[in-house]
Amino acid sequence: MMRSWCRSKLDTAVNREQFESLALEHLDAVFRMAMQLVRHPSEASDLVQETYLKALRVADRFEERGGGIRPWLFKILHNVFYTSLATAKRVPVPVDELHGAIADVPGPDEPAPAWDLGSLNWEFVDERLKSAIEDLRPEYRTVLLLWGVEGLKYREIAKIQDIPIGTVMSRLHRARSILADQLADLAEETGRSGG
Amino acid sequence: MSEDLTAEMIRLYCDGELSQEQVDQLQEHLHQHPEDRARVEFERKLQQHVHAVMQVQCRCAPPELASGIHQRLAGAAAEADEPQTSAGQVASRQSKPPPATTASTWSLASWFHAPPRANIYAVAASLALVAGAVLFGIFGRPIDAWRRPQLVDLVADAVPFVATEHGRCADNGDARANKATFRDPHLAAAELSSWLGATVSAVPLTDRLNERGWEFFGGGYCGVPASKRSGHLIFTRDNQGSGPAILSVFVVPDDGGYSVLNKGAVVPLQPDNWHKLPAGERFSREVWIYSDGYLIYLLVSCSSDELRQAAGALQDALGQASP
Fold first, then answer.
1. Set of chain A residues whose Cβ sits within 8 Å of the Cβ of B17
2. Domain housing A65
3. ipTM for the assembly
């Protein structure tokens, strides 16, 4: 339905406005992801503007597959960002999508210590989590955002980032293990200072 | 933590990524294992706090961004309209719907109202296309001749890689563990089937290999050369005294473009034929190759006996006669 709407009407100014209002509903989410990629508000704004321009140009290729327009905007953002990187040759595009990505990932059986932390006070974990998230590698942080904040499924994240679903799983697993380790440290510190 | 439940499974459960059957099994397990229930609770709380922290941490879009986007989209739309209209006309157009396009207003009535010469040209063009298609059908090359695939030599491209990769997994427990992203054969079968676009029979293969003393260790994505996508299944068997034996099954989609070196001649890989390649200068492990017409399976292990067992298990799993 969305596709036919785009095809038949997006070339008119009236429906460009419709597209705008539909897409701008997700502006905060798109900006959040842009911030994860570029880490600077003005660069993130530029990236988001390019994303919306590109989205308008390719709107007739949008197909509604149950997730709405938001994952589609994320995918375009991701493409615009990595295309600009590749063009500028500032940073190499990650090529760890196949077995390379798995090499630095712990085995799925790796025990993580934090779930038996009886002494962990959840009221005080946010500051530690905040700094731990800041310290994560960008690819882990992005997956964490798409999963934790945007609530996307693994398959949607894989499609947005153009990586295998196993890489999404391993990045998410790794990111959560790092955060769990930080909470374990916090619980230990709290236990020590408390007596 | 109970031994048979991995951190990965707990997280898949919390993220709603397990099948209903797996959820039922896991819930039954959780009912009996309070320590794993605590892990589930931990993962859920962690997710809630990650959500809260990241939402605050990642600020909202600045207010001027929306207006900037609005201006740029309007500018882009105006540029697109430039050839047909002036800037003033663009502004007036935004206030009312534009006239319908030619495509959307085409109808049988418009055909009859079109200038007669235009209709004659359209009919003539259609007749010319039909005549061309008929002549091509009679005198042209067969369709198959146009799409004959380029053969890829598996021995040159893929076999040395799979032999080396198997060696790495066989010799190094960490490499093996890292490779095995999916530790459950059901999950491996589902993910690799989705990845490769054809059914990977990991579950029946595991069943058949279990009967022969092998255990499923894990599966994962792989980068076999000459293939866009490929997977790797790893099985182990405890050979008492001499350490674990390792069996690798690499899976590659068969697009009909593969060949193998057979007694000095390169021949297309035929479905249901085993190609047995002894270890040599170019690859250190014996490799057996099999195609079921949809997927190519490359089996690598340390001995011919192990490969024979694996080949039998694979063909049993695929519902075919053993080699």
1. 153-154
2. 2-88
3. 0.71
